[in-house]
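Worked example 2:
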Amino acid sequence: MGLPLGQTRLDADAYLAWEAEQPDKSEYVAGEVFAMVGVRRVHATVAGNIFAALREHLRGAPCLPFIADMKLRVASADAFFYPGVMVTCDERDRRADLFVEHPKLIVEILSDSTAAYDRGAKFAVYRQIAALQEFALIDIDARSVEVFRRQVNNEWLLHDYSGESSCTLESVTLALQMATVFEDVDSAEA
């Protein structure tokens, strides 16, 4: 997460109106606005790879994948985020224009500056989303994928695919080859 912008606190509607006029994206948490930082090429490549695989897999299904330009609203936390990739199968989200509220899968691509936040405070907020079934963390440097799955008792179980040739996104019934996830990412770049 970036640093908060030096401004007065906004409510959610004021944030949406303000952000619509801005040249850059920003996230919003409980009245504070945080500028989004640019990503490395490899980050964008991995997000694109995952989105492309999901898009192809979900073609014709009632589910829609979104890449980093679509906002996610978590009303219970008074927050808006831009996940790396997310999938929703909820009819209400199909009619949404500015943000999704009911994703079943969220994927975040880790960076040095956001990894602790993505694993901690952001995941805590994401767990408040009733529809969310899986949260995946992609570590480009380690070439690893960690998938947290919601269990029936609302506990989250970690599936660590480090060193595996593929990972499974059960929420969308997709087995994803690691070669696909990290396609066009040179090992020297990670």
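The domain at 39-181 is CATH 3.90.1570.10 (tt1808, chain A). The chain has one domain: 39-181.
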